[in-house]
Amino acid sequence: MKKQVFLITRLMVLAMVWLSASNCVAIRRNTNSSPINHDRWDQLVKKHVKDDGFVDYKGFVRDSNELNSYLDQLSAVHPNDKSWSRNEQMAYWINAYNAFTIKLIVNNYPVESIKDIKKGIAFVNSVWDIKFIKIQGFTYDLNNIEHNILRPVFKDARVHAAVNCASFSCPRLRQEAYTPEKLDSQLDDAMKKFLADPLRNNITAEKVEISEIFKWFKGDFDRDAGSLIAYINKFSAQKISAQTELKYLDYNWALNEAKGR
After folding, report:
1. Contact status, residue 235 vs residue 94, Cβ threshold 8 Å
2. How many CB atoms lie within 10 A of CB 176?
3. pLDDT in tens, the chain (261 residues)
4. Are the beta carbons of 91 and 178 closer than 8 angstroms?
5. Residues 174 and 49 sit within 8 Å (Cβ to Cβ)
6. Which of 213, 215, 221 is nearest to 170 (CA)?
7. Which one of 177, 197, 214, 223 has the lowest number of neighbouring Cβ atoms within 10 Å?
8. Distances (CA, A) of 233 to 63, 211, 226
9. Residue 157: closest CA among 201, 220, 228
10. Which neighbouring-strand residues pair with 211?
């Protein structure tokens, strides 16, 4: 019985995601705006993200006016297919996800974990489903941006190393804004650094322990490289064989705060 309930719930969630994704793809063509630069965000992350990727949230609180100014820039323009290139759109949505996540933490600081802001079921009523993001007349939550726009529209698994969920086990928050001119190299670099990061993945000749992100979104990695192991070998300095047993590290949802570092 429990298994049946789980399967039904899972199917309902997938249906909701699919419907939302379809809507998001449609509205991308119904706005009038021009691309913006991300200089404000670039300055903020250079200032408040440490070399190890941990975040000075107290610094973001102090610079909340600058953060709000950047978010106002994002809110004033909605990417579209008429006047935005693919890279301009993708860079916008990655930066938006990361900046609005920081805003969520700043609004609730201090907090032990992003999940403490609102507990619940993903895609239904968790912190990632808080509809607080206003963009040119449309309202989004973080799940909309990641699972209804970034993943299905751009179909690039490297995005999983670019978006940051404000947690210890997340890929590092980048110390620069994503920009259309450098997007491809930035995404390559983000995935390479994520796989090489001993706090999030442990890939050696003797054993392979990887982030649960690779389990949760295995389909994305399979799509891009044929298999998860092939994907890992594309970006990891340490190559592994097709017969390698993959083990997954427990995800640590503690806030990725820079205190004491």
Report:
1. no
2. 14
3. 444 433 433 444 444 444 444 444 434 556 789 999 999 999 999 999 999 999 999 999 999 999 999 999 999 999 999 999 999 999 999 999 999 999 999 999 999 999 999 988 866 789 999 999 999 999 999 999 999 999 999 999 999 999 999 999 999 999 999 999 999 999 999 999 999 999 999 999 889 999 999 999 999 999 999 999 999 999 999 999 999 999 999 999 999 999 764
4. yes
5. yes
6. 213
7. 223
8. 40, 15, 11
9. 220
10. 249
Q: What is the rounded CA–CA span in Å between residue 61 and residue 197?
A: 28
Pairing relation of β-strands 208-211 and 247-249? parallel
Q: Which two tokens stand for residue 219?
A: 């389909």
